[in-house]
Design brief:
8 helices; binds zinc ion
Length: about 260
């Protein structure tokens, strides 16, 4: 999976397990300790469940069928490029053509060759999809079109670079804005929602990329083409991003809850 800003994958980033390993080292003498403990454990259960749900969506995406032939997908892709005057190269990767690329890209491309990933790199203007799953290229070209459509959409794309830092930023802000009367401040009350909201631009941009692919498929192949397989695949791809957003909210909340123990 590509991890630098400017690359847009069909699968999202994962979030690390945020529960401190020193969790079982005894309880601090605070009134709300047991409540905090229950909340922290509940959040961790939710985090694990979300991870499983994301894996399930990823598996469904991998099992998904192609909605049309590779030739048709190429026609749609070429039409998306021409209509939007994109300066983007597309390629369908397998283990035969992977060696055409620099060694620095090998790890990312191996995942593509295995059918586990697809990506668009705005830096090198390249969209790739697995040769076994060509229809994923339409979503990646959706990202390329988003990149070409002005500052707002580019902002949405770039937000994925800083969104994962939000739980840590909230923790730091919360530490410096604690209320003297002991009541919860805005960050403590809304950490989960703020964390999730930080990922909303990414979810929106991902959804829009898929919609552009679906629209192009209908435009080129006609309204009678059955694109339910494409919609299904893109739905599971989007769900992994929705789950990643919820996970980010949970991580933000966990940070705040665990910080109360000290
Ligand atoms: Zn994407």
């Amino acid at each position: 999976m590509i991890s630098s800003v400017g690359n847009y994958n069909i699968y999202p980033y994962g979030y690390e397990n945020r529960l401190s390993p020193c969790y079982n080292q005894g309880l601090p003498p605070q009134e709300n300790t047991s409540k905090t403990l229950v909340t922290a454990i509940s959040l961790q259960f939710i985090a694990v469940a979300l991870q499983k749900a994301s894996e399930w969506c990823g598996k469904n995406l991998m099992k998904g069928k192609e909605f049309t032939s590779a030739e048709n997908v190429k026609r749609i892709a070429n039409q998306m490029i021409a209509k939007n005057k994109l300066n983007v190269r597309t390629d369908f990767i397998d283990f035969n053509n992977i060696n055409n690329y620099p060694i620095s890209m090998r790890r990312s491309l191996e995942a593509v060759a295995k059918g586990q990933n697809a990506f668009y790199s705005n830096d090198i203007k390249l969209a790739v999809a697995p040769k076994s799953r060509p229809s994923l290229i339409l979503h990646e070209l959706g990202h390329a079109i988003n990149s070409s459509k002005g500052k707002l959409l580019r902002f949405l794309q770039k937000s994925r670079g800083w969104a994962p830092a939000v739980p840590t930023v909230l923790l730091l802000l919360n530490d410096s804005t604690k209320r003297v009367d002991g009541k919860k401040n805005f960050i403590e009350r809304n950490a989960g929602l703020i964390g999730f909201s930080a990922f909303l631009p990414t979810i929106a941009e991902e959804g829009l990329a898929s919609l552009r692919g679906i629209k192009a498929a209908k435009r080129v192949l006609g309204k009678n083409i059955n694109i339910s397989a494409l919609k299904r695949n893109y739905f599971f791809a989007l769900m992994t991003y929705v789950i990643a957003g919820i996970s980010l909210g949970i991580a933000a909340k966990q940070n705040i809850v665990l910080s109360k123990r000290t």
